[in-house]
Amino acid sequence: MKKAILFKRLVDILYILHFIGLIGIIFIIPFGTVNINQVNINIENWNLFYWLISIVSLVAYIIFLRGLYYLRKMARFLLSNKYFSDSIIQNLKKSGNHFLYTGIMSFTLLVAMWISKLPGGKFELIYEKNLLIPLFLTIIGMFFIIQSNALNVAKGIKEENELTV
Amino acid sequence: MAIIINLDVMLAKRKMKSKELAEIIGITTANISILKSGKAKAIRFSTLESICKTLDCQPADILEYSETD
How many residue pairs bridge chain A and chain B with CB atoms within 8 Å of each other? Predict the structure, then answer.
């Protein structure tokens, strides 16, 4: 129970911090210099490609935030100890789907940025956290989906066991 | 479900109440109710044995197969 409470608090903190971050991004983009994936270009010099990248990044971030919202919702139901309830299963699945989409979108963006540098004669292969985060998000998203399916199967078995006389 | 439970019929024939049966075979009245209402997904052989022993009947007297769902 203590772990569930701690989990809920941590998810709450992460959600609030990310929400503040999103508001920050929305207010900072029109005024300041924003770095997108190692490209230090002032916002006035952005071409259509960079605008597209930043918009898709923002959409991916909003999807991630929505995934975090469903995780928060799931954590709330977790406190009631009803592990096999539909609310937990559905919210976990939704959260997993959102994280998976974010991971795929972020990875696509990284690939797009990498390809965009090729015509300029640059060939970069950098091992850094930017590459690992989308991969981790994809794995976590898939794990949540699998976990929700496992819970669904367990729910059926539990019901069957309860209705065995 | 295609399997029909005729426990209430047998109980009526033996002039026995559900509560009485539950006490003899050692299961809760809630479980007897699940069995009678047809909500049960499965029945243990041990439970079936106890019911048959108490009501002096065969499993076929309690369970019936019907093709119509």
Answer: 23
Give every residue of chain A whose pLDDT is below 70, as ranges.
28-45, 122-129
Q: Contacts of residue B25 in chain A, CB cutoff 8 Å?
A: none
Q: Is the pLDDT of residue B66 over 90?
A: no
Give A-chain residues touching B31 at CB under 8 angstroms. 165
Q: How far is CA A111 from CA A42, A107, A114, A131, A133, in A?
A: 22, 6, 5, 10, 14
Q: Check if B39 contacts A (Cβ < 8 Å).
A: yes
Residue closest to A70 by CA, chosen among A127, A148, A160, A139? A148
pLDDT single digits (tens) B5-21? 999 899 999 899 989 99
User: Does the predicted model carry a pTM greater than 0.90?
Assistant: no
